[in-house]
WSC domain-containing protein
Amino acid sequence: MKFTTLLGVTAAGLVSSAAAATTTKMGVEQPSSTPIYMQPVVQGCFSSSGDLVFNSTQPFNSRGQCGQTVCQAIGKNVAASTEGSKCYCGDSYPPNSTLVDDKYCNAPCTGFGQDACGGTGYWTVYNTGLELYGVPYANDSSSSSSSSASSATSASTTVVGGQTVFVTQTNDADGTTKKSSTNTAGIAAGVVVGVVAVAAAVGAGFFIIRRRRNRAIEEEYRRNAAVNAFFSGGSGKAPSTTGSHSISDSRLDPVMSQRRLSDGSIADNEDYSRRILRVTNA
């Protein structure tokens, strides 16, 4: 009886152990927790890898293998596993908007099957322990894609109140239409300002040239006045130009000096300032 009882207890123990082994879940995502210095800690399940770069496929992948042995060793702050064996490294978490429920990361790690190493299209992200609180999240790709959306632009003209208005129409990628108009009044004002500026420059140039010419005329008049004053003996009056000679010799007879032509040659050694009596036969 004792032997039979012992066999029954042993069999029950083996059955319970086998049942416990079959109920152990594989590929369970570890909950997110506070980063720990120099230890890889799970930060969540993400549907995007963000700026993380694929490093290698690990046949015995695990949180410690990817987060510490691979990424921490090369100085990266963030690590991630996907599809059980693939390891990614980088310096920023994936976009915060791509954080999903832990149930989507359900692929057993190839080195430790109880833990999840991402899934198909999902990444289990770790903080490697090098930077605990300053690790940023990557920019959301949806915002960058929307900012880079192409648009088509067309232009047309119309007449409003006797003025031509240019209308620009922009069609965004999402179908939104934007219009902007440019009134010709602004363009005309700009043209008028330009013409006024050119006219002012031309007027200033003409004034400068005229002033220089007046100065030249005044300077020439001063020179002529100085020459005339010199020849007139300081009287300040210009010599007479009514005769054939502009300058009169003081030795000539006043009557003779008023004649246009000389009756004869004048001797330099004779004094003609007094009349000479001549005796003639009547």
Notes: The first strand starts at residue 41 and ends at 46.
